[in-house]
Automatic annotation (TrEMBL):
Protein's UniProt name: Putative transcriptional regulator
InterPro entries, A to Z: WH-like_DNA-bd_sf, WH_DNA-bd_sf
Source species: Halorubrum alkaliphilum
Domain of life: Archaea
Family matches, as SUPFAM superfamilies: Winged helix' DNA-binding domain (SSF46785)
Length: 76
């Protein structure tokens, strides 16, 4: 699966989706669960969680608890 993906200068695999694609997946499902974002982009839940937390650190999305579930919303 990862055999065809390019690595960056630090040896990390380059992202399959842009930040804007992640944000669009959140918008389509808002408030979006992590699994919903993962399903929309056909990536692993862990990958979606990592990317969403990076966007959270950048202030581009926010998270909130809805019941016992974490949900994401776009802040732009």
């Amino acid at each position: 699966m990862n055999g065809d993906r390019e690595r960056d200068e630090s040896g990390q695999f380059e992202a399959e989706h842009t930040d804007d694609e992640i944000i669009q997946a959140v918008r389509l499902n808002e408030p979006a669960g992590t699994q919903e974002v993962a399903d929309e982009l056909e990536i692993a839940r862990q990958s979606a969680d990592y990317r969403l937390r990076r966007l959270l650190d950048q202030g581009r999305v926010e998270k909130k608890m809805i019941g016992n579930s974490l949900a994401w919303e776009v802040t732009e």
